[in-house]
């Protein structure tokens, strides 16, 4: 086995958490090695553009379509999730519906960019609502890191819009960039439903359409300089370009922002001190080596490959003073388990969560200007919190600007229907499409899920990938708490449509296929939000957690597991901003540790 | 080829409801003519274009009526013409129906697929929607905040 030179820190994974920590540590003078399982093709603008071309030519424009995996770093994709014949081995009873990408830049290459903070009450689910568990830190402790994260990843919002359900901000604070302008359809919907009362148990909650914070470049405030597209040259010269310093409204945040106006982890990697940073791409971490006496990590074995289409690889050992697993909630757990590290009470891989989500779609009475702008710009956030969470899940709505693309595959399917089934052609066909497509409205109803120890990632020697690394085996069940939240969310979506005069066209049989879940005689077709979490949860003591509030492993003093895997609960906010804030907090602790 | 191209564009105008400037300006007329030539058995494209050329002169409406019965209603040419509409609108080829394949011939290229990245970007469906293809031809920062403005012909 080849042994690499030793570093101050070895980071597994060139995604958002790893990139933020690499930037912070190199900025403090530390020597950092990053091991990335996938290829580094997104580092240059030319390489990134090739991914864009791949997307243009793809027949199924799924979240992974621009980002094909290497043989040695397989990843879940939407089609195989539906067929259950891909990277994941799913044992049910429900299908886990999310995917991610193994590539330099990670899943931020195809995230939507929603950068909501968690609510103060989200950190205290046990104390406040009597369910699940509390975090070992609260909103106040994390708030300064939220501010830092919003600057690091570049979030656009007006703080005046964001005071609700206890969210508070430091005196005089505002986001680094002005809010992304809400879409015309947001305004039309808002005019109809703002102030509409919704009953949740004993509570009456007024809802409104609200601009959400987005990691997409907008007009900067003060001295903030938006960070454009990544372009790291072949000779190792690091850089970003002026391209993408404003969102252009490509309606393609997922699966690829053509100009990189939306944040991806490559931007933080490009801003790291390149003299102190070594990145090994096509290097799949396969084992964490532990000193059996002290429990400390001695090194990380990884499998390096030259050819993305081949299973041929060589094995190496990376060593450092500290080790940071930032490989994804699933991959972190998988790597630990593959190393024989099950954590205190076997908790590694357990309490896997997501935001199971439903679609509602409808036809507005007039044009709302669908199929343009960022995929979404606003949401309904008022039902993210409340006393009802003692009984059922909270939820939030994302209001689409992209018509029925996600729900039915329109406009392609609308064209096919009009031509093949209704025999329309010529001016009549064109008129039919022009009078219907711009009226398409889509809501995504993302529902909270609580930690359940039986929902888990495990490994099985019968299921290995081409390199002999284990594939994730998933047990997953959506419980009544979440299902009751789905029922409530569906009812609210219907009420919103009624109020706005929108004809409800939600018909799962006419939509893209998604798995079913049943509750009190109702069937819900859900999909995943890509929000993997909870697989190495943090806590106050080892009896109920894998890492402490600094994301340091209880059982291994020089090992840190970072990312949404550390979330004890996940509320309703998209996890990236919170995991970024946690990563920056951990980076501060690492700088202090390494300086000792 | 030039004569074929003229007929192909003429037929495409009637089928799509978009005018010659729009169709020529897409840059896709030649690639599409080539693509259907490659995917279809010999003579089908020629027969389709001949059928178009034989449409009686007269008003658009009258020509559309004849096109509907003589081309779209024809068991051999109809499915091809409908595929051509979808090609212009979506940039993708749709596999012909099993009955058609059995009767008139199969081709390894006759599969559901996007013809090319350029074809995806040129899809007329996005213009019909008042939008743009995701990932290409964006309207610019903040344009989405304005109400839809369609210039109807």
Please summarize what this structure is.
Chain A is of the alpha/beta class.
Helix content of chain A: 10-25%
Strand runs of chain B, count:
2
Q: What structural category arises from helix and sheet content of chain A?
A: alpha/beta
* Number of structurally distinct domains of chain B: 1
Output the number of helix runs of chain A. 13
Low-confidence stretches of chain A: none
Give the overall pLDDT of chain B as a whole number. Answer: 94
The main sheet of chain A comes to: 7 strands, mixed
Radius of gyration of chain A: 23 Å
User: How would you classify the helix and strand content of chain B by structural class?
Assistant: mainly alpha
Instruction: Characterize the main sheet of chain B.
Output: 2 strands, antiparallel
How many helices of chain B? The count is: 9
Task: Report the count of strand segments of chain A.
Answer: 20
In one word, what is the shape of chain A? globular
Task: Outline the structure in words.
The complex is a heterodimer of chains A (596) and B (153). Chain A has 596 residues and is of the alpha/beta class. Chain A has 13 helices and 20 strands. Chain A has helices at residues 16-27, 45-57, 78-83, 125-129, 139-152, 184-193, 265-271, 329-338, 405-408, 412-421, 426-436, 480-499, 575-595; strands at residues 2-12, 32-35, 89-93, 196-200, 203-207, 210-211, 277-280, 283-290, 297-304, 314-325, 357-363, 376-380, 395-400, 440-447, 456-458, 473-476, 503-504, 516-519, 522-525, 559-561. In chain A, strands 1, 2, 7, 8, 9, 10 and 20 form a 7-stranded mixed β-sheet that branches. The longest helix of chain A is centred in the last third of the chain and has 21 residues, at 575-595. The radius of gyration of chain A is 23 Å and the shape is globular. The model of chain A has no long low-confidence stretch (mean pLDDT 96). Chain B is globular, with a radius of gyration of 17 Å. The longest helix of chain B has 15 residues, at 2-16. Chain B has 153 residues and is mainly α. The model of chain B has no long low-confidence stretch (mean pLDDT 94). Chain B has a two-stranded antiparallel ribbon with strand order 1-2. Chain B has one domain (2-133). Chain B has 9 helices and 2 strands, in the order ααααααβαβαα. In chain B, α1 (2-16) crosses α4. Chains A and B meet through α2, α10 and α11 of A and α1, α5, α6, β2 and α8 of B.
């Amino acid at each position: 086995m080849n042994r690499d030179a030793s570093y101050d820190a070895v980071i597994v994974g060139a995604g958002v958490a790893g990139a933020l920590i690499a930037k912070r540590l190199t900025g403090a003078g530390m020597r950092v090695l990053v091991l990335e399982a996938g290829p580094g093709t997104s580092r240059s603008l030319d390489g990134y553009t090739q991914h864009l071309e791949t997307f243009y030519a793809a027949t199924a424009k799924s979240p992974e379509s621009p980002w094909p995996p290497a043989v040695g770093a397989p990843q879940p994709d939407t089609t195989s999730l539906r067929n259950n014949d891909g990277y994941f081995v799913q044992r049910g009873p429900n299908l886990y519906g999310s995917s991610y990408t193994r590539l330099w830049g990670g899943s931020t290459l195809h995230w939507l960019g929603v950068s909501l903070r968690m609510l103060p009450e989200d950190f205290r689910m046990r104390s406040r609502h009597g369910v699940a568990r509390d975090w070992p830190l609260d909103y106040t402790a994390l708030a300064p890191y939220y501010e830092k994260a919003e600057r690091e990843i570049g979030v656009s919002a007006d703080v005046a819009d964001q005071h609700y359900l206890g969210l508070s901000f430091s005196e005089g604070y505002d986001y680094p960039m002005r809010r992304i302008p809400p879409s015309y359809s947001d305004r039309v919907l808002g005019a109809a439903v703002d102030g509409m009362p919704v009953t949740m148990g004993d509570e009456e909650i007024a809802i409104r359409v609200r601009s959400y914070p987005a990691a997409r470049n907008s007009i900067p405030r003060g001295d903030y300089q938006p960070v454009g597209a990544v372009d790291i040259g072949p000779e190792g010269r690091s850089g970003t370009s002026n391209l993408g310093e404003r969102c252009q409204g490509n309606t393609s945040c997922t699966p690829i922002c053509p100009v990189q106006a939306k944040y991806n982890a490559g931007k933080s990697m490009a801003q790291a001190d390149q003299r102190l940073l070594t990145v090994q791409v096509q290097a799949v971490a396969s084992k964490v080596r532990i000193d059996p006496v002290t429990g400390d990590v001695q090194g990380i074995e990884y499998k390096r490959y030259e050819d993305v289409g081949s299973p041929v690889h060589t094995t190496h050992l990376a060593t450092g003073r500290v080790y940071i697993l930032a490989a994804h909630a699933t991959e972190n757990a998988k790597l630990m388990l593959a190393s024989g590290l099950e954590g205190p009470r076997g908790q590694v891989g357990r309490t896997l969560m997501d935001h199971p989500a439903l679609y509602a779609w409808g036809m507005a009475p007039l044009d709302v200007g669908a199929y343009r702008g960022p995929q979404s710009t606003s949401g309904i956030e008022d039902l993210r919190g409340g006393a009802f969470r003692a009984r059922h899940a909270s939820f939030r709505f994302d209001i689409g600007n992209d018509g029925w693309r996600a729900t039915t595959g329109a406009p392609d399917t609308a064209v096919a229907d009009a031509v093949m089934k209704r025999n329309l052609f010529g001016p009549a066909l064109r008129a039919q499409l022009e009078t219907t497509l711009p009226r398409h409205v889509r809501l995504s109803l993302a529902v909270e899920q609580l930690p359940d120890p039986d929902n888990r990632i495990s490994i099985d020697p019968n299921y290995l990938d081409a390199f002999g690394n284990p594939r994730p085996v998933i047990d997953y069940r959506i419980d009544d708490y979440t299902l009751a939240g789905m029922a409530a969310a569906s009812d609210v979506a219907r009420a919103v449509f009624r109020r706005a005069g929108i004809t409800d066209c939600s018909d799962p049989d006419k939509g893209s296929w998604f798995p079913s879940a049943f509750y009190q005689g109702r069937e819900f077709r859900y999909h995943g939000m890509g929000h993997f979490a909870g697989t190495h949860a943090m806590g106050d003591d080892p009896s109920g957690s894998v890492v402490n509030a600094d994301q340091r492993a209880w059982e291994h003093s020089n090992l840190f597991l970072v990312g949404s895997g550390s979330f004890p609960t996940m509320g309703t906010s998209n996890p990236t901003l919170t995991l970024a804030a946690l990563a920056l907090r951990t980076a501060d602790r690492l700088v202090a540790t390494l300086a000792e | 080829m030039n004569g074929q191209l003229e007929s192909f564009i003429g037929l495409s105008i009637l089928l799509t409801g978009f005018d010659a400037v729009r169709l020529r300006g897409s840059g896709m007329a030649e690639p599409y003519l080539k693509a259907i030539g490659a995917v279809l058995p010999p003579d089908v494209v020629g027969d389709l274009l001949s059928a178009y050329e034989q449409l009686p002169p007269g008003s658009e409406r009258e020509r559309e009526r004849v096109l509907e019965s003589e081309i779209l209603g024809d068991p051999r040419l109809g499915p091809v013409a409908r595929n051509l509409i979808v090609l212009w609108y979506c940039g993708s080829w749709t596999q012909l129906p099993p009955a058609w394949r059995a009767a008139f011939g199969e081709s390894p290229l006759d599969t559901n697929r996007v013809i090319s990245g350029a074809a995806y970007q040129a899809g007329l469906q996005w213009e019909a929607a008042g939008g743009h293809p995701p990932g290409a031809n964006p309207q610019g920062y903040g344009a989405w905040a304005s109400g839809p403005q369609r210039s109807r012909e």
